[in-house]
Specification:
Elements (H helix, E strand, L loop, with lengths): L6 E2 L3 E5 L5 H8 L2 H6 L8 H19 L3 E6 L5 E8 L7 E7 L8 H15 L5 E6 L4 H9 L3 E6 L8 E7 L6
Parallel strand pairs: 5-6
Antiparallel strand pairs: 1-2, 2-3, 3-4, 4-5, 6-8, 7-8
Length: 177
Amino acid sequence: MHQNKIVETERLLITPTSEDDAALIYQLMNTPKFIENVGDRQINSIEAAKKYIRLKMLPQLQELGFSSYTLITKADGFKIGTCGLYNRDGVDGIDIGFGLLPQYEGKGFAFEAAHKIKDMAFTEFGLKVISAITTKTNIGSQKLLEKLGLKLIGTTKIPNDNKELLLYKIEKESIVK
């Protein structure tokens, strides 16, 4: 995938996250659910969100060709969340992750985006395995990962976090078309 390519699903435009998305990143990373399930990234301003994008997301996009993607509704052009493939410390392989603003949860957007990103991981980016981590209490995330075909394989911990997380994986070969 070209680093600036916009991908479409039935209801979404999926585009690489850029500094233009700082307001969304600031809003998303400060929702109670994000802080509880992903962690407090200390993004306390839109400027801090721009810096986070510049230092964490864009280098991975340039190095690996994939990173975080902003989800935009086709119907009204609203930025509603993110989905992406992350080279995360403490996770063996590439991790798929997603997050939506609360008012857009439960409408199928996360599955729609994650399904497309998962397909791109195997067909365009050449990945053989995708991992995912989630908290034991995040039932919605667990159900979505299972709907995507990922299997629970155990637990793990990531650096600088004592919380035991559920670890999911899917291999390209296990996908049945």
